[in-house]
């Protein structure tokens, strides 16, 4: 279970020099990568960035052994419910959450990683018909769930030892919330995208979970998913992906879009499009955004990377000869892309 | 507060909407 070291290999063609293969992780006991993420691991006074890989029945923690070499530190065996998502907690160490379920999330569990006391624990954080979950700064997890016609939007706080403290209920919109994003630099502001293509803004503090504004994204890009939000000069900028957008002559086949909203008037305007590179057939499948970098798996089995400020594709990873790409995630820190293949191999690229 | 093509904008939009919203 020691990952093989690799010499960085530049890609040919588009993105040459912008993505360099650094390491390859392959869990010999798993056949299919469900998700991949990173987590800070603090032990004996030092802090290291570890990789977390998930397959349906287990979650593995990988530790850097030497530059470009990784070793498996621990494996959590899960029960009968398959893992479907890792829910990373930004600015937190030794703690990660996972979502388990079939078609939708049925459970959120936290996994604790403290080696000194050999405490690699797991425990239930929330159960229900959960539609979306996101880890936030300050060891918080927001989630939306539905029981019949009633929707609950809830913020859960975790202590340093993982145990859940009291939750806070946020005012739900009528329609189901399908994705969340923190508003960067505004700890009390949170946005979400809904099933009818609206952006919802909440005020999240210890006292209230007010719903401040609901703004429609527009009919041209249905089923938008929010990935990132920030406020600048009185406008709220939201990075959206468009898994169901139709190809158009003016914008090509859009994957990501930066939209500026005026929260005071609920008016909006598209700022930048990031479309599939010319010659790439198919559409956006799933992706991840960190700062101004966006990465997405395309239906062709390739991974494309964009600079959102320029709206340009900067790198393209074609599908491998034996396995196509299934996952694209950015590491918590540093310019590192985690790319998962269908056969369970996870490749780390320096970007 | 200033005018834009998205209507009047406010740098304090979050505080203002929080004060206006029902608790």
Your description of this structure?
- The complex is a heterodimer of chains A (about 350) and B (about 25).
- With about 350 residues, chain A is mainly beta.
- Chain A is built from no helices and 28 strands.
- In chain A, the strands form 5 sheets. In chain A, strands 17-16-15-14-18-19-20-21 form an 8-stranded mixed beta sheet, with no helix packed on it.
- Chain A is globular.
- Chain A starts with a strand and ends with a strand.
- Residues about 5-10 of chain A have low confidence and may be disordered.
- Chain B is an alpha+beta fold and about 25 residues long.
- In chain B, about 35% of the residues lie in helices and about 25% in strands.
- Chain B contains 1 helix and 2 strands.
- Chain B has one helix at about 15-20; strands at about 1-5, 5-10.
- A two-stranded antiparallel sheet of chain B has the order 1-2.
- The mean pLDDT of chain B is about 85.
- Chains A and B meet through strand 17, strand 20 and strand 21 of A and strand 2 and helix 1 of B.
Overview in brief:
Chain A has strands at residues 4-5, 20-25, 35-43, 46-54, 58-66, 69-77, 83-87, 95-101, 105-112, 122-136, 140-147, 150-157, 168-170, 177-184, 189-194, 198-203, 211-216, 225-232, 235-241, 254-262, 267-275, 284-290, 293-298, 303-307, 312-317, 325-330, 336-341, 346-350.
Labels describing this entry:
heterodimer; A: 351 residues; mainly beta; eight-stranded mixed β-sheet; seven-stranded antiparallel β-sheet; B: 23 residues; alpha+beta; 1 helix; 2 strands
């Amino acid at each position: 279970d020691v990952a093989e070291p690799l010499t960085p290999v530049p890609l040919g063609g588009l993105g040459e020099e912008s993505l360099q293969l650094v390491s390859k992780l392959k869990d010999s006991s798993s056949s299919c990568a469900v998700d991949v993420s990173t987590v800070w691991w603090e032990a004996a006074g030092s802090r290291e960035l570890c990789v977390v890989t998930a397959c349906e029945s287990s979650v593995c923690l990988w530790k850097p052994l030497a530059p470009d070499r990784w070793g498996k530190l621990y494996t959590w065996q899960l029960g009968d419910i398959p893992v479907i998502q890792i829910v990373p907690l930004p600015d937190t160490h030794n703690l990660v959450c996972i979502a388990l379920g079939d078609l939708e999330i049925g459970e959120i569990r936290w996994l604790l990683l403290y080696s000194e006391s050999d405490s690699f624990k797991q425990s239930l954080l929330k159960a229900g018909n959960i539609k979306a979950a996101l880890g936030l700064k300050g060891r918080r997890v927001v989630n939306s769930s539905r029981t019949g016609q009633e929707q609950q939007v809830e913020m859960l706080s975790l202590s340093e030892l993982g145990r859940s403290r009291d939750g806070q209920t946020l005012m739900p919109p009528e329609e189901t919330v399908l994705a969340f994003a923190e508003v960067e630099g505004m700890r009390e502001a949170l946005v979400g995208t809904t099933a009818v293509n609206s952006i919802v803004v909440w005020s999240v503090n210890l006292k209230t979970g007010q719903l401040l504004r609901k703004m429609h994204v527009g009919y041209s890009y249905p089923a938008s998913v929010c990935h990132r939000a920030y406020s600048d000069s009185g406008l709220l900028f939201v990075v959206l992906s468009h898994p169901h957008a139709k190809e158009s002559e003016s914008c090509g086949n859009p994957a990501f879009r930066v939209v500026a909203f005026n929260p005071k008037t609920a008016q909006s305007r598209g700022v930048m499009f990031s479309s599939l590179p010319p010659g790439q057939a198919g559409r956006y499948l799933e992706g991840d955004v960190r700062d101004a970098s966006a990465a997405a798996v395309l239906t062709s089995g390739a991974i494309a990377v964009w600079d959102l400020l320029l709206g340009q594709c900067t790198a393209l990873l074609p599908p491998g000869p034996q396995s196509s790409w299934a996952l694209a995630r950015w590491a918590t820190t540093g310019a590192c892309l985690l790319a998962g293949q269908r056969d369970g191999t996870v490749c780390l690229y320096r970007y | 507060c200033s005018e834009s093509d998205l209507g009047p904008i406010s740098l304090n939009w979050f505080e203002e909407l929080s004060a206006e919203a029902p608790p």
